[in-house]
Design a protein that fits this description.
The structure holds 3 protein chains of 3 kinds.
Chain A lengths: L4 H16 L6 H7 L1 H9 L4 H10 L2 H12 L3 H24 L2 H10 L4 H30 L6 H28 L16 H20 L1
Helix pairs in contact in A: 1-6, 1-7, 1-10, 3-6, 4-6, 5-6, 7-8, 8-9
Chain B lengths: L9 H25 L5 H14 L4 E4 L2 E3 L4 H8 L1 H18 L8 H25 L3 H28 L4 H33 L11 H19 L6 H9 L23 H26 L2 H4 L1
Helix pairs in contact in B: 1-4, 1-5, 2-4, 3-4, 3-5, 3-6, 4-5, 5-6, 5-8, 6-7, 8-10
Chain C lengths: L1 E9 L5 E10 L4 E6 L5 H8 L6 E6 L2 E2 L5 H7 E4 L3 H4 L5 H11 L4 H14 L15 H13 L5 E5 L7 H12 L4 E5 L3 H7 L2 E6 L2 E7 H8 L3
Parallel strand pairs in C: 3-8, 3-9, 6-7, 7-8
Antiparallel strand pairs in C: 1-2, 1-4, 4-5, 9-10
Helix pairs in contact in C: 4-5, 4-6
Classes of the chains: A mainly alpha, B mainly alpha, C alpha/beta.
Chain lengths: 215, 299, 225
């Protein structure tokens, strides 16, 4: 069953909000809250081991906080922040595997995020890899000329990358005009909210709220 | 400083989330009004440029290199409204695609980097550009952008986790100053390279009257100043302590006694909230007076 | 079909790029624009759909190209740009191919149906929901062309369409273009491709058309191999 992206986004936010409402010391309740994403992980068609490992890679920030708490002798607090960070990141990873980033952005728009922001983000995503490939090519070209550590080369690379971005955006705009662009980008993706989505949302939020506040 | 999920407390997320939503909605409205159709792809492409620019290692010292963060450069080239939206787009992609910064934590990250960070860069740049010193303005703006957004982020983390000590604060302040200076240097170098290739690329669009600059700077100085405020008694308190004169009973209850707003937890939050409220009151009163006093008398 | 009289143009930061171009093209005719880099070929072509607006007169199928007629002109003139990366600017291939139809006022479902058919004819089904970045150079070129062909233009302009294409890609593109009956203007340095897809050529030199005639003859005269 394919969930409406809005439903997925609302459930993700509800879970993260419930987690954020926990205070240091509520380690047992936090552990119980971890059940939900772990169940989702167990029953979803996602690479489980990869996601569990990937969630750990983005923990350095939380490690720093946990380390300070440990140095102060507060082990419970250290565990709390580490666990809450980890389970939050893991949940986001699972959801972004199940629902594409593009669908999540569009769900945000349908839920009220400014359209202008979402359009800019879509252009950003479209050209992210293109510009990174250009930057990589510049870096390699500089290396080949023995210029790995040169401020001038680095600054020139940034300048050139910027100017190419300006030129690229002009080219994109010309291509848009040539295909009849009239100043307003058409919206291309109808979202169909079904009864199953309402059911999932109600059950999901009830489950999250029940686990968080009823126990 | 991208804060991940799981660190910030619910009140911090709620407060900054509301501020971020307001900021982003207003910025989107202003950006759409001021951005001509041909620049819509430019904002997205420049967002991608910021990602790509972070792959360019800039040598900053023996064995050390930094990379461009980009907020200041965006503000100077496309104006603060469009830069706020582009930075928000960058933060969205960082959170959803790269898990660099949390999804719920966007509430704070967007405020810190896309709103405060952009305006902290733009205001000095604009002011000093008018005075004929755009490069100095760009350097100071870049430094302030990084410094202030990092300080605010650290404040949010500190209040949420309660783990920060004064020593750690001082260390972080030093670190953020250095990071800000590096950002200033890289931004300036990139700017000069762009000018050599393209000529001037400054956004000429106005964005807010100078009174916003004054209010914004005041708030920023106040937020930081709380940390450096001396705990020694002021002149009157010293006199009272030395002479044994006791206080006269107050004839009214102050709204925020001792410059603290009791609704908040944590000394920094109470003092800062009181400071912000006071500044807004003074600003509002000044604005009201300026409207009421006939123009001729104001000369 | 196309009539150009005394077209002149200068970019803001350069000298004159077009110095009085006169040009005509009949309905259904395929013409190659040849000439050195910087001779004005692309600048000329960008005037035909109103992206650039210089001095002089341009008429496309009886419509004078001017600010107020751009929408009508761009329905008639399709442009495939040299950079397919810039042409495919939407997040997925399917959406990009639909873009032109939606701007023409076609309903979303109908546009999606036609775009899906076009994607199947281009053998790009596997990429329909993907970021165009992941396509090969040839696939990008086909997708870009597909998005323009779907708009059913009466004049098709292609700017250096064989750039980055391998020989099989060039052959495939040649076949596709020869199946299209609309008037075509092809800017190219590839003389063999020009001979196989066009019947007439004009030669640009320093912003002026200095010669025109059968494609093979122009190529031989200027040694354009």
């Amino acid at each position: 069953m394919k969930l409406d992206p809005r439903c997925a986004l609302l459930l993700l936010l509800a879970y993260l909000i419930a987690l954020s409402s926990l205070t240091p010391g509520q380690n047992l309740l936090l552990s119980l809250m971890c059940i939900l994403p772990l169940l989702l992980l167990a029953f979803s068609p996602v690479p489980r081991a990869d996601l569990l490992a990937q969630a750990a890679y983005v923990l350095p920030f939380s490690f720093a906080i946990a380390a300070v708490a440990l140095l102060r002798g507060n082990t419970a607090q250290a565990v709390f922040f580490l666990l809450r960070s980890y389970i939050s990141i893991l949940t986001v990873l699972i959801v972004t595997r199940l629902v594409s980033t593009l669908d999540l952005l569009r769900a945000m728009e349908r839920l009220g995020a400014p359209r202008f922001l979402i359009i800019v983000t879509e252009f950003l995503m479209r050209y992210l890899e293109v510009l990174r490939a250009e930057a990589d090519a510049m870096r390699l070209a500089a290396l080949c000329r023995g210029a790995a550590q040169s401020k001038l080369i680095a600054a020139s690379s940034l300048g050139m990358l910027f100017v190419r971005s300006l030129e690229r955006s002009t080219g994109i705009h010309n291509a848009m005009l040539a295909r009849g662009f009239n100043g307003r980008l058409p919206r291309l993706y109808p979202m169909q909210w079904r009864i199953a989505d309402s059911f999932t949302l109600i059950v999901g939020i009830a489950g999250i709220a029940g686990l968080r506040w009823a126990l | 400083m991208h804060i991940p999920d799981g660190i910030l407390s619910a009140p911090i997320l709620a407060g900054f989330g509301a501020a971020s939503c307001l900021g982003v909605f207003y910025s989107a409205k202003k950006a759409e009004e001021t951005t001509q159709a041909h620049r819509i792809p430019l904002l997205g492409v420049l967002g991608a440029f910021v990602f790509a620019a972070q792959m360019v290692n800039f040598p900053v010292g023996p064995g050390a290199s930094g990379h461009l963060l980009g907020g200041a450069l965006l503000a100077a080239t496309i104006g603060p409204w469009a830069a706020s939206i582009t930075m928000t787009a960058i933060l969205l992609v960082q959170a959803l695609v790269f898990q660099d910064g949390g999804v719920l934590a966007l509430a704070a990250n967007v405020f810190n980097m896309a709103i405060l960070g952009v305006w902290a860069a733009w205001l000095p740049f604009k002011a000093l550009s008018k005075a004929g010193h755009p490069r100095i303005g760009l350097f100071i703006g870049s430094l302030l952008s990084v410094f202030l957004s990092a300080i605010l982020a650290l404040g949010q983390v500190s209040i949420s986790s309660g783990i920060m000590s004064q020593g750690l604060w001082i260390f972080c302040l030093g670190l953020f100053t250095i990071t800000g200076a590096i950002e200033g240097a890289i931004t300036l170098a990139a700017w000069q390279a762009i000018e050599r290739l393209e000529g001037s690329v400054t956004d000429a669009g106005g964005a807010g009257p100078s009174r916003l600059w004054i209010l914004g700077t005041s708030i920023a100085v106040m937020l930081i100043g709380v940390f450096f405020a001396s705990s020694s008694p002021d002149v009157l308190e010293y006199f009272r302590q030395q002479t044994g004169v006791t206080s006269v009973g107050a004839s009214f209850t102050a709204l925020m006694p001792d410059y603290e707003w009791g609704k908040f937890d944590g000394e920094w939050m109470r003092k800062s909230a009181a400071g912000v409220a006071g500044l807004i009151c003074v600003y509002g009163l000044s604005l009201l007076l300026s409207k009421l006093i006939p123009r001729g008398q104001q000369q | 079909m196309i009539r150009v009289s005394d077209l002149r143009y200068q970019y803001s930061d350069s000298g004159p790029v077009l110095r009085g171009i006169d040009y005509t093209q009949a309905r259904g005719e395929s013409v190659a624009l040849l000439g050195a880099n910087g001779s004005g070929k692309t600048t000329f072509a960008l005037h035909l759909n109103g992206i650039l607006q210089g001095q002089g007169q341009i008429e496309v199928d009886g419509i004078r190209v001017a600010s107020e007629t751009l929408e009508a002109v761009r329905r008639k003139v399709g442009f495939v740009f040299q950079s397919a990366e810039n042409q495919l600017f939407l997040p997925t291939v399917l959406e990009d191919i639909m873009f032109g139809l939606l701007n023409q006022g076609v309903a979303v479902e109908e546009a999606k149906r036609r775009a899906t058919q076009m994607i199947e004819s281009l053998n790009l089904e596997a990429y329909a929901a993907r970021n165009p970045f992941h396509l090969s150079a040839g696939e990008k070129r086909r997708a870009a062309l597909g998005g323009v062909l779907l708009m059913q233009p009466e004049v098709l302009i292609l700017d250096e369409p064989t750039t980055f294409l391998d020989p099989p890609g060039i052959r495939s593109l040649t076949r596709m273009l020869n199946q299209q009956s609309m008037a075509k203007i092809i800017i190219t340095h590839d003389s063999r491709f020009a001979i196989e897809t066009t019947t007439r050529a004009v030669f640009f030199e320093k912003g002026q058309i200095v010669a025109e005639g059968p494609t093979g003859e122009i190529i031989d005269r200027f040694g354009w191999v």
